[in-house]
Design a protein that fits this description.
By secondary structure, the protein is of the alpha/beta class. It is built from eleven helices and ten strands. The strands form two sheets. An eight-stranded mixed sheet has the order 8-7-6-5-2-1-9-10, sandwiched between helices. The two termini are 17 Å apart.
Length: 312
């Protein structure tokens, strides 16, 4: 069975869960609820890389304790959150008392979360069978990726080669160094047997990284490329109809259906809300997508269901 059929079979097994998420969406739209459904827990800011676009690695050099993470997971679940992300730093570096991220994913699934996802730079062993999606960062062709992230491309490809049977989604942060290479990374997603899909975000210019921000012309060019990729059958995780709205910069934010937790501090939508004016420069396409979704955009609702059932 090839990876596309595996993805479809896995999606069929989650139909009941997606119906539950759909009902959450209907209630949110009808009653204008601000209740979150997606939660992200930052496990650590320790990272083995110093990527050019990142401004949050190795600041506090903190491994957050298991008991605090477990307590936040339980709080998320009681609050009604059903989509859970574990992030870093580098997520696979997190350890506490003999536990690692694999144990957290297992506990989250037992707790009842519908989707449990892990974000990683791919330089560590990414074997984590219970994760619904492994979001693995690739930021261009080998030369450009290594320019941004250090000499890591070959190591990531080796780890990816051992990741058969997992649902791996490439995760590309698009900036003015790599925006012309989205099609090459999309081709990798289509061709590699261990990759199911690819998700794009645009660079959010946190402090110290503004020089990497895309101009409007570069964003327009990139959006046009991504839209052609979707039409051409590249397995893009992003929603076609949200791309133009992103360019218009007209979606409602912050998105109250998403929260991020780090060290017991919660942020609505993402950490950029803490920086004055940065929210208006948000590059996270999922934020635009979720805002449109829970705003009742029919086209987005259709594309979200179709895309998630295909690739999750």
């Amino acid at each position: 069975m090839d990876k596309r059929n595996q993805a479809v079979e896995g999606a069929d097994m989650k139909t009941t869960e997606f119906l539950s998420l759909t009902w959450f969406g209907i209630k949110t739209i009808l009653f204008r609820m601000n209740k979150p459904i997606l939660g992200t827990i930052i496990l650590t800011d320790y990272c083995n890389l110093s990527c050019k676009h990142c401004s949050v690695n190795n600041i506090n050099r903190k491994m957050y304790p298991y008991k605090d993470i477990r307590r936040e997971m339980e709080s998320f679940y009681k609050q009604g959150i059903r989509i859970l992300f574990f992030c870093g730093g580098e997520t696979f570096l997190w350890k506490d008392g003999g536990r690692d991220v694999r144990d957290l994913v297992s506990e989250a699934k037992q707790m009842g979360f519908y989707l449990v996802n892990v974000v990683t730079n791919g330089t560590e062993d990414i074997s984590i069978p219970l994760a619904d999606v492994i979001f693995l960062s690739i930021d261009g062709t080998k030369e450009t990726h290594n320019l941004i992230r250090g000499d890591t491309y070959d190591r990531i490809m080796e780890n990816l080669g051992r990741a058969g049977g997992y649902n791996v989604c490439l995760y590309m942060a698009v900036n003015n160094l790599n925006y012309r290479e989205v099609e090459e990374v999309g081709a990798l997603a289509r061709q590699h047997p261990n990759i199911t899909s690819i998700s794009f975000n645009f660079h959010t210019p946190y402090e110290g990284t503004r020089h990497l921000a895309l101009s409007m012309e570069q964003k327009e060019e990139t959006v046009d490329r991504i839209k052609r990729m979707i039409k051409g059958g590249i397995p893009v995780f992003n929603l076609y109809s949200a791309l133009d709205v992103y360019l218009e910069n007209s979606w409602k934010r912050p998105c109250c259906q998403c929260i991020v937790s780090e060290g017991g501090i919660r942020y609505t939508c993402g950490r950029c809300v803490e920086s004055e004016g940065l929210c208006r420069e948000c590059g996270y396409l999922f934020a635009a997508e979720f805002s449109l979704l829970f705003g009742g955009n029919i086209r987005i609702i259709y594309e979200m269901l179709r895309t998630y059932l295909r690739y999750v």
